[in-house]
Design brief:
The protein has about 180 residues and is α+β, with helices and mostly antiparallel strands. The protein folds into two domains: about 35 residues, no CATH class; about 140 residues, Alpha-Beta Complex (Nucleoside Triphosphate Pyrophosphohydrolase), CATH 3.90.79.10. Helix content is about 20%, strand content about 45%. The longest helix is centred in the C-terminal third of the chain and has 17 residues.
């Protein structure tokens, strides 16, 4: 077990806070642990099932931290600690894709990169999708929306066109969950 000796906030903005904790391990050894704290977020798997096949809706956006444009499932947070997960999921889906879900199922809750970050990530499946107009936040003006066949999406995960670990984890969890529903 690790014991926290002291903590201090070293940085804060509207989306993130960073703290530095002095810790003590069970063997008495002390050290510093840096922690990024973020409010809860969600990731939505928008699944459209048609007679022609199954499709997923993805978002394309530029991710500054890695200086690249990538595809991923709609996801995000509202910088509110006590958010209702389903409300957040419906809101993010609508904001980023314009889609509304007739049926929304929470599959699980994960932690994003818990070696350095404290952030819950609620995973939702969105079905019975209805089109609408996207309402992106002011910092999401570069979003693009893509409808992709499931088989192509899975190829994209394997060939490196999709590199977002949250998207990959959500899809893996969904596949396990789906198998258990049968």
């Amino acid at each position: 077990m690790i014991k926290t000796i002291s903590t201090r906030e070293v940085y804060r903005n509207a989306w993130t806070s960073v703290r530095e904790d002095v810790i003590e391990h069970a063997n008495g050894q002390r050290g510093i642990y840096g922690v990024v704290d973020k409010d809860p977020a969600c990731i939505v798997i928008p699944l459209e099932q048609t007679p022609e096949g199954d499709f997923l809706w993805l978002i394309g956006q530029f991710r500054y931290t890695v200086l690249g444009r990538f595809l991923e499932f709609p996801q995000g947070g509202w910088e509110q600690p006590d958010i209702v997960p389903e409300e957040l999921a419906r809101g993010e889906l609508k904001e980023e894709t314009g889609l509304t879900a007739g049926r929304l199922t929470q599959i699980t809750t994960l932690q994003i990169a818990y070696g350095v970050m404290n952030q819950k990530h609620h995973v939702f499946l969105a079905e019975d999708l209805n089109p609408g107009i996207a309402e992106p936040d002011h910092e999401e003006t570069d979003l693009t929306v893509h409808r992709v066949p499931v088989a192509e999406f899975e190829s994209m995960l394997l060939d490196g066109r999709i590199v977002d670990n949250c998207t990959a984890a959500a899809w893996g969890i969904y596949r396990i969950w789906r198998e258990r529903q049968r």
